[in-house]
């Protein structure tokens, strides 16, 4: 019974035991047992044959040789490390411009053939008439030891023979310009070319064509059926044609030397490229005009509507007259295109959602400026023929003079001329007087005018009548252009001049705190100079009671806090705090190239403003008088509210104080020059300096541009203006 129980308990482990036994049996059978003595010589041969290969455990190479064998091969050895030699791969070339990398070429290259006798006359005239319209114009000449004119590129190849000069010109172009341009235009300096029309012709041609285009002329050899292009009227050659000609150009060097240069080139093109000169290609024609000795161009203006070149041109005056004629023709074309576009806009406005109300007068001009609030409303200035009722100095009325008078006279003349053109020949109008005139500047449109003109109307029968006519005119804004300015160094040191009187001692702490935060801690390239202004009584008691002793102690504390900081101060005794008097003292103690920023204790200086002070002040050209952002009286602007810590543009808390002229950025050399002119004028009346400020001096006694602009980063606290002597400082 016990045996059966034992068998029943062991039976589940039977398969496990059987499986383990079978697995062990098969593993033992798969092992190769070696019972014979090992042949060490054969093992060494096998190891030497397998040198450099991976050794396998159990192979003869990993078995010890014992005492009878050589065991040197199994001792560790130090193998010298030899790094793998890196292949020197060539760095890929990256072009500076994407057009170069993509193989995009410029459209047109113009080569002008000139000589030493005409380069200073006709050559200069050609350059003046086409340079502004073409991107690449190069003059080719062969003169020796001759001074070349400045202002345009000239290639001197050194060959005065006409045919050799033509060969050297083509050779130079193939060497330097063939990979940069698609089309090459050759002309002479006694030819006038309409540059814009040449560019228009090229823009409609395919670059893959072998094209030789100009005025076709027969060869001297009548047996040649092809034609060459006359050089006097210019000719156009494609890049594909020149590349094909490049292979055979050497064969043409010494051939046909007796021929004209244009005929020589045409013969070479015909012989080796089988391309003849054509004047028309795919509907595009090469129009030219042959000029005579006495031609009245005004009578033949219609013939020049499509002309590309005019030849020959006798002198520079002839060249400029042609340029004036073609410019007038192009201007009339532009006017016609504008009228056509205006008519299209007028027709399309009828089907618009708002109908004709969507059309703005004048057609094609931007609509008027729309103010967001009543503060942004544009005001009209009222004027007559002699007076204007809005003056720059704030006066209610002043006389029209200078550019303002010229502007009013021009507007009245244009108005009468346009009305006569409209009503001609039924009536004729003559101006009698300007009854009312209004003008305003719209930043979206330009200068707008409303004129009430009293006119004399004369009909065809000679009867006259006086009427008043209201007209609207607009002088639109012209094309916006970038104006070149002088280079200004942004790292120049700004010398901050801070004048202080006895009434400013309470504000110096806040000024020094702002200066330390915005200039010293930011390592701004600026130097502060404090100017203590004493009157006669204060100067006598300076040893017993210095009114600026507390300020001087504050300056010393800042110098101890910032080890590299030095704040120089100067004491000046004056009858009144005149800017001219204390700047005379400062100017003598600094070099002429010093940049001054004159400020007040109510001003918080920022790093952003100091950068603009450097940029807006140009030596010998411009001085800068910023308009600070001044706080309103905080008791009124922030009544029962928290005062904001940071300055921000808000019409309820601050404003741009346009009446403040105390802040100025000037160079010492400009101040000295203007001060010398002022000194000669007030030599006998020194007391006049008390009423002078620096801005008045630069406006009256200097030719420099006085730049005036709002400056949001120049924040100024509100303060009471107390009268100091004869002026309010």
UniProtKB/TrEMBL annotation:
Transmembrane segments: 12-34
UniProt key word Transmembrane: yes
Protein localization: Golgi apparatus, Golgi stack membrane
UniProt entry tagged with the keyword Ribonucleoprotein: no
Keyword annotations of the record: Golgi apparatus, Membrane, Signal-anchor, Transferase, Transmembrane, Transmembrane helix
Membrane topology: Single-pass type II membrane protein
GO molecular function: glucuronosyl-N-acetylgalactosaminyl-proteoglycan 4-beta-N-acetylgalactosaminyltransferase activity
A GO cellular component entry from the record: Golgi cisterna membrane
UniProt-listed Enzyme Commission number(s): 2.4.1.-
Pfam families from the UniProt entry: CHGN
Family named by the database record: Belongs to the chondroitin N-acetylgalactosaminyltransferase family.
The protein's name in its UniProt record: Hexosyltransferase
Upper taxonomic lineage: Eukaryota, Metazoa, Chordata, Craniata, Vertebrata
């Amino acid at each position: 019974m016990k045996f059966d129980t034992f068998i029943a308990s062991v039976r589940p482990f039977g398969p496990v035991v059987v499986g383990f036994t079978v697995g062990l049996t098969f593993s033992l059978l798969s092992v190769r047992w070696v019972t014979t003595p090992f042949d060490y010589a054969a093992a060494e041969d096998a190891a030497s044959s397998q040198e450099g290969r991976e050794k396998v455990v159990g192979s003869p190479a990993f078995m010890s040789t014992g005492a009878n064998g050589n065991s040197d091969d199994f001792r560790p050895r130090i193998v010298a490390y030899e790094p793998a030699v890196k292949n020197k791969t060539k760095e890929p070339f990256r072009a500076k411009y994407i057009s170069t990398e993509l193989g995009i070429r410029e459209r047109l290259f113009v080569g002008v053939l000139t000589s030493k006798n005409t380069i200073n006359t006709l050559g200069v005239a050609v350059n003046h008439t086409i340079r502004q319209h073409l991107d690449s114009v190069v003059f080719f000449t062969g003169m020796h030891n001759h001074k070349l004119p400045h202002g345009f590129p000239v290639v001197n190849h050194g060959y005065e023979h006409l045919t050799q000069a033509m060969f050297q010109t083509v050779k130079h172009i193939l060497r330097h310009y063939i990979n940069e341009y698609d089309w090459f235009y050759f002309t002479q300096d006694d030819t006038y070319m309409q540059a814009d029309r040449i560019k228009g012709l090229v823009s409609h041609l395919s670059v893959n064509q072998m094209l030789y285009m100009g005025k076709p002329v027969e060869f001297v050899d009548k047996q040649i059926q092809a034609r060459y292009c006359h050089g006097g009227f210019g000719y156009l050659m494609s890049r594909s044609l020149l590349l094909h000609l490049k292979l055979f150009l050497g064969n043409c060097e010494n051939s046909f030397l007796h021929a004209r240069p244009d005929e020589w080139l045409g013969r070479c093109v015909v012989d080796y490229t089988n391309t003849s000169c054509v004047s028309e290609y795919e509907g595009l024609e090469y129009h030219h005009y042959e000029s005579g000795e006495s031609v009245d161009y005004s009578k033949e203006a219609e013939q020049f509507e499509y002309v590309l070149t005019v030849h020959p041109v006798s002198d520079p005056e002839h060249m400029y007259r042609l340029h004036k004629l073609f410019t007038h023709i192009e201007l009339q074309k532009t006017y016609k295109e504008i009228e056509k576009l205006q008519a299209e806009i007028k027709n399309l406005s009828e089907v618009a959602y708002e109908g004709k109300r969507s059309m703005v007068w004048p057609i094609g001009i931007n609509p008027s400026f729309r103010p967001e609030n009543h503060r942004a409303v544009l005001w009209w200035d009222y004027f007559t023929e002699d007076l204007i009722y809005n003056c720059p100095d704030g006066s209610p009325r002043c006389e029209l003079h200078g550019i303002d008078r010229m502007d009013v006279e021009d507007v009245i003349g244009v108005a009468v001329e346009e009305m006569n053109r409209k009503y001609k020949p039924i009536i004729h109008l003559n101006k009698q007087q300007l009854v009312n005139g209004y003008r305003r500047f719209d930043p979206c449109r330009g200068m707008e005018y409303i004129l009430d003109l009293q006119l004399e109307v004369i009909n065809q029968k000679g009867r006259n009548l006086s009427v008043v006519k209201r007209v609207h005119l607009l002088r639109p804004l012209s094309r916006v252009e970038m104006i070149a300015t002088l280079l200004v160094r942004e790292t120049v040191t700004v010398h901050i001049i801070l004048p202080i009187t006895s009434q400013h001692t309470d504000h110096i702490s806040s000024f020094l705190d702002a200066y330390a935060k915005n200039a010293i801690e930011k390592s701004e390239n600026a130097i502060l100079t404090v100017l203590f202004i004493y009157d006669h009584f204060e100067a006598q008691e300076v040893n017993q009671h210095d009114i600026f002793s507390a300020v001087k102690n504050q300056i010393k504390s800042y110098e101890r806090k910032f080890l590299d900081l030095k704040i120089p101060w100067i004491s000046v005794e004056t009858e009144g705090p005149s800017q001219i008097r204390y700047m005379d003292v400062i100017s003598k103690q600094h070099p002429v190239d010093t940049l001054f920023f004159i400020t007040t204790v109510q001003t918080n200086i920022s790093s952003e403003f100091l950068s603009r002070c450097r940029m807006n002040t140009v030596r010998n050209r411009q001085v800068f008088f910023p308009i600070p952002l001044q706080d309103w009286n905080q008791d009124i602007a922030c009544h029962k509210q928290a005062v904001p810590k940071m300055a921000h543009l808000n019409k309820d808390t601050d404003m741009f104080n346009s009446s403040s002229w105390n802040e100025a950025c000037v160079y010492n050399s400009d101040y000295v020059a203007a001060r010398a002119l002022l000194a000669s004028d007030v030599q006998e009346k020194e007391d006049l300096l008390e009423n002078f400020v620096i801005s008045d001096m630069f406006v009256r006694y200097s030719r420099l541009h006085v730049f005036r602009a709002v400056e949001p980063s120049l924040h100024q606290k509100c303060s009471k203006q107390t009268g100091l002597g004869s002026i309010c400082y």
